[in-house]
Write a structure and sequence with these properties.
The chain contains three helices and 14 strands. It is mainly beta and 242 residues long.
C-alpha cells in the first residue's frame, strides 16, 4: 500500500473538505467555497443581457465605433438591411421684399418659395415661416439643417441670438456679438448648423416643423438669407440567399 505524506495540517484538510462538502448553491462574491454545478448553470443562464458587452438593435451598429462590444443577431440583420441611402433636400430663400424686409424684434424669420414634395418616404410642406417635414414610419434617417441670417445695424452688445428650432424646441443656437458697423454695408451674415451625428429611427410617423428664430440683442434688423433642410434616408434591402 502506497504511503502519502500530506503537507497540510488536519485543520486545513478539514476546512478544504468542508468547502467541497458544503458547496454554495450560488456563486457569491468573496466566497472561497466551491459552487455546485447546478448553481453555476443557473447563474450563467440568468445573466442579464444588459450586463454583457454587446451592441443591440436598438443601439444600432451604425452609431457605434469600438472594439470592445459584440453585436447581436438583430443588430447585424438591421445593419445589413440598411445598405443604401439617398438624400432629399428642400432649400428656401429668405423674404426680401423691400428695404425693411426683415424684423426688428425677436421672432421667426420669414421665407418664400412655399412648396411641397414627396420623395423616398419624406414629405416636405411649407408655410411662410416653417419648413414642415413628415418622415414615414419605419425609416432610418439623418438630419442636416443650415440657416444663414443677415443682420443690419448691430453693434454687438448685447449680442444677437440665432436659433434653428423644431416648433418651439431649440435644436441649435449661435450667439452673435459681431459689430455690423465694421462692414461698409453695416451688414453681416451668420450661419447656423444643426447636424447631429446620430441615425434616427421613425418607429411611428415623425413630424418636424423647422424654423429659424432670431432673438434681438441691441437695436438691429435681421432677415433670412436661406434655410436648407436635408434628410438622408437609409434604405432597407432584403438579404438574398444564393
Amino acid at each position: 500500500m502506497s504511503t502519502f505524506s500530506l503537507s497540510q495540517t488536519g485543520t486545513e484538510i478539514n476546512s478544504a473538505i468542508g468547502k467541497v462538502h458544503n458547496a454554495d448553491s450560488t456563486p457569491t462574491q468573496g466566497s472561497t467555497n466551491m459552487v455546485t454545478s447546478g448553481g453555476v448553470y443557473t447563474a450563467v443562464n440568468n445573466v442579464d443581457v444588459s450586463a454583457l458587452p454587446i451592441t443591440t438593435e436598438a443601439q444600432g451598429i451604425i452609431n457605434q465605433d469600438n472594439d470592445d462590444k459584440v453585436p447581436t443577431n438583430a443588430a447585424v440583420k438591421d445593419l445589413v438591411y440598411r445598405t443604401a441611402e439617398k438624400t432629399v433636400s428642400l432649400s428656401r430663400s429668405g423674404y426680401t421684399e423691400g428695404f425693411y424686409h426683415g424684423i426688428s424684434s425677436s421672432g421667426q424669420l420669414r421665407m418664400v418659395d412655399p412648396s411641397s414634395s414627396v420623395s423616398d418616404g419624406v414629405t416636405f410642406s411649407t408655410t411662410n415661416y416653417r419648413t414642415n417635414v413628415t418622415i414615414a414610419q419605419g425609416t432610418y434617417y439623418r438630419l442636416s439643417i443650415t440657416s444663414r441670417v443677415n443682420v443690419r445695424g448691430a453693434d454687438g452688445s448685447p449680442a444677437q441670438t440665432h436659433q434653428i428650432r423644431d416648433g418651439n424646441t431649440v435644436l441649435k443656437q449661435v450667439t452673435d456679438s459681431t459689430d455690423s458697423y465694421d462692414f461698409d454695408s453695416n451688414e453681416h451674415s451668420v450661419d447656423v448648423y444643426y447636424r447631429p451625428s446620430s441615425v434616427f429611427y421613425a418607429s411611428s410617423e415623425k413630424n418636424y416643423s423647422f424654423n429659424t428664430y432670431w432673438i434681438v440683442g441691441d437695436s438691429a434688423h435681421a432677415w433670412l438669407d436661406y434655410m436648407s433642410v436635408s434628410i438622408t434616408v437609409y434604405y432597407q434591402r432584403p438579404i438574398v440567399i444564393v
